[in-house]
Amino acid sequence: MSISTTPTDAADRVPEHEPTAHRGLLAWVREIARLTTPDRIVWCDGSEAEWHELTDGLVAAGTLVRLDPAKRPNSFWARTDPTDVARVEERTFICSADPADAGPTNNWVEPAEMKLTMTELYRGCMTGRTMYVVPFCMGPVDARAPMFGVELTDSPYVVASMRIMTRMGASVLAAMGDDAPFVRALHSVGAPLEPGAADVAWPCNDTKFISHFPETREIWSYGSGYGGNSLLGKKCYALRIASVMGRDEGWLAEHMLIMKLTSPQGVVRYVAGAFPSACGKTNLAMLEPTLPGWTVETVGDDIAWMRFGDDGRLWAVNPEYGLFGVAPGTDHRTNPNAMKTLAKGNSIFTNVARTDDGDVWWEGMGEPPAHLTDWHGDDWTPDSDGPSSHPNSRFCTPITQAPTLAAEYHDPRGVPIDAILFGGRRRTTVPLVSEARDWVHGVFLGATLSSETTAAATGKVGVVRRDPMAMLPFIGYHAGDYFAHWIDMEKRAGDAAKLPKVFYVNWFRRGDDGRFLWPGFGENSRVLAWIAGRLDGTAPAVETPVGMVPPPGALDLSGLDTDPADVELALRVDADEWRAELPGIAEWFATMGDKLPAVLATELDALRARLA
Ligand SMILES: Nc1nc2c(ncn2[C@@H]2O[C@H](COP(=O)(O)OP(=O)(O)OP(=O)(O)O)[C@@H](O)[C@H]2O)c(=O)[nH]1
Ligand SMILES: O=C([O-])CC(=O)C(=O)O
Ligand SMILES: [Mn+2]
């Protein structure tokens, strides 16, 4: 790291140590320093030495606790303020010039008004703190058009996490040269330190704003240190801002995993999958197939940027560099590859429990130890009331440590997608797997995707809501325009178009007694094998009102110890349940007003007719 300024004249000193000649960047850094008045400015180089300096400082401040290096090398335990544990959707804003561009799914404030409000919050907000300049790149730096960003933040926890989650530092700054365009991402925890005041382990502010200015490609985040609100390369840039770039430039920025699926015969298929937050993307991306001979390799677990190649195929890149995964439920039986990734160390665990011998623990990881320190920092025993770990506790770890990493991960061209899966968390109605009849029907399935809310966002858990393409909290513009953009992708593919087939999955259907009807996790390979068979034209399917499903016997259930009657229930298409679903879909579409593409209204009419 290089320190560019002294404590007293942070904003105005001659930039002798500023490691770039990028005038736009320098001017912005000085402008923000003048506004936020940090004690010093640090330009992050992404080096090993810088990581150690940051993490040592965070340990000294009490934000991080170093885990036992013999068990978890170079790894740390963090606890947040109990009010700062998840994305805050009601405090997230799309500040487009025209409110119609934000649409019915976003909070909107006029951009100048939002900037006025937030400028007053930012004024002096870094007093007593360091402002870090974090140059980062979403996707490979050697891409044809590398996607740069710079985050200015007063949180060293954010800097350390950004080093895991993005390509960042001196090499990125060098690649930016002196005039590359970049997304300006400003972040503050909103907790100035007056001289002599004591700091807290997790500074944050009750007032929170996660604001996006799509026209100027800017992000202003204030008051939260939690990942989804503060690691601005992730949801804010790679989904909300990038979805607007995609609209303008003809590509897609999606909340999708990307996997490489290889059959026992060696046939390779690339599959992307959109499931809402905490609905199984990371697990599917790292799956250990139970069906012999199949392999799954990981390209991405959360975000896919997809554009058509000259070959008419849809090519997907994972813009991220790390995994920011849900901890609870992750275990050697459910996701052994995540456990192996974490065992290599170099990770930050947030809001999980710590064992007395310097390791981490969370619900779902086998038998609980007799004593833990829980995510509040309190003593915890198996007799304690609540869980030891917050349901949205997370691990942050380098994706390059995954034993399942596909070699293609590093390829700036990405991988050509053969199938897109949409999926949600539904106790009823939605069958284990179904296939769309064509592209428009596939877009309809995505546009009407529904799921029960999870702990990944603040608010009530378990409420069914429409979550189009698993992007409800992340579409940076009008959802009706977004649907039209998806439909139009068919035209963008050109004459040689080879569109992915679309499937709809639900791992979470339950029996009357609340049990999961389908065992999930590695057993999902059986569903993937049927999907691969559909792509090859070898697997059978039967028409139902909602799409094509595997007939009895079409799923390979050999060696599965689930009751076949449960599998049948998981696959069932119940016309009554689906008829009950129709008013909700109609209501949802009505919120799009005249922006709803006519073909989607036609799809709904056709579904209604098939169910009549
Ligand atoms: N029953 C069941 N649970 C699953 C399955 N796959 C994942 N889960 C659980 O669902 C939760 C979320 O899974 P993840 O894979 O982390 O979800 P995600 O979509 O990557 O979540 P985000 O990182 O928030 O976007 C975890 O507790 C998993 O254990 C499955 O096939 N069946
Ligand atoms: O953004 C976050 O906090 C984590 C995440 O991946 C999601 O919620 O989809
Ligand atoms: Mn996610």
From TrEMBL:
GO cellular component: cytosol
Pathway field: Carbohydrate biosynthesis; gluconeogenesis
Cofactor(s) for this UniProt protein: Mn(2+)
Biological processes annotated in GO: cellular response to glucose stimulus; gluconeogenesis; glycerol biosynthetic process from pyruvate; oxaloacetate metabolic process; propionate catabolic process; response to lipid; response to starvation
Region (Disordered): 372-394
Listed GO MF terms: GTP binding; manganese ion binding; phosphoenolpyruvate carboxykinase (GTP) activity
Keyword Cytoplasm: yes
Keyword GTP-binding: yes
The Phosphoenolpyruvate carboxykinase GTP-utilising N-terminal domain, residue ranges: 28-247
Active site residues of this protein: 279
Cell compartment(s), UniProt: Cytoplasm
Entry superkingdom: Bacteria
Binding site for substrate: 87, 226-228, 277, 392-394
Family annotation (NCBIfam families): PRK04210.1 (NF003253)
Subunit text: Monomer.
Protein name: Phosphoenolpyruvate carboxykinase [GTP]
Organism: Spirilliplanes yamanashiensis
